[in-house]
Design goal:
Layout (H helix, E strand, L loop, with lengths): L1 E6 L4 E2 L5 H9 L3 E4 L2 E4 L2 E7 L2 E6 L4 H10 L15 H21 L3 E11 L12 E11 L1 H16 L1 H15 L20 H12 L4 E2 L6 E7 H16 L2 E3 L3 E3 L2 E3 L3 E3 L2 E5 L7 H14 L3 E6 L4 E4 L4 E6 L5 H11 L1
Parallel strand pairs: 1-6, 15-16, 16-18
Antiparallel strand pairs: 2-4, 3-4, 5-6, 5-10, 7-8, 9-10, 11-14, 12-13, 14-15, 17-18
Length: 338
Amino acid sequence: MRTIELVELEGVELSDIPGEVLRVLMSTGGFRISDGKLIPRTVAGFVRVGEWRVIIRPRLEASDFMRILFSLGMATDMQDEGFDGVHLFEEMALFYLMQLRRALLTHGPPRAYRPRIREGLYVRGKVERIFPHRIRQKVWEMGPVPRASLLLRAARIAASVIPERGFYLLREIEALMGAVEEGHDPDLTDIPRNEPYRSLVLLARTILEGGGIHTGHGSSPSFSFFVNTARLFEFYALKTLSREFDVEYQRSFSTDGFVIRPDFVIGNIPADAKYRFSMDNSDIYQAISYAVILGSDRIFLLYPYLQFQINISCCKIMGVGVLVHDAIEKLKKEVQDA
């Protein structure tokens, strides 16, 4: 097996990528081409195309990436032995399938009551001199919720990564899930915090947004499994903050027809997760808009490593490196001072 290693957000010359591999990579949606270079977006994972294997490393430090996976339950320990190969990502795919199967066995498929308008006769049979008028009524039926489709689509991608064991797990999951309608991805703000499938929906979204596929490429089948590292970082930040604070996730605020949705509200302080490794002007403009609309004198921007403070007339903008050792302690102090 011939191996090519890439790093997310860093470019590699197109001439260094075999044509058959490049076509598969571009079909995933996790890559872009700029100035003659192939640049992985915020994805990490692996691709197999014939005799080629492409490993996309996260931009994060290996130990920090493992810390995120361990915190989210996607790795069994803090060791990074499998980080250089595909073993880690295969383990992540297996973890998702096993957790989904366990949830289905424990809680049953994710379903809810939904209203449906039904029209029918209120006089049944033949009755002389009475015209059988029709009546419209709203009935409530139990059916699959939108997140069921998302969970199942992610399961199919995960099963393609570990075809032998994944095939049987997927068949069992499909049987337990029952009939599922394809629909729009769910709004996570509508999922209760104690919803047993909430964490699995978060993991499913990272798999789907990472662009994972299972395709055929001529006579050489290709397999890929990506996770969206930006989304993983956001979920890690959510879980870390929730241990220490009362956190609202993606709550919408509207004023004068203008709607904003910060990733988090910690107490009364808005915060946004930024999977960047250098500050962008748009981050500051966004923070200022939050301060003006919400009337907050402090705004948190959560990065993997960046730390800074900007004092302007309307607010104090705090850049917090969530993966830095004492970041949460600094956040506690700022929230208490506010």
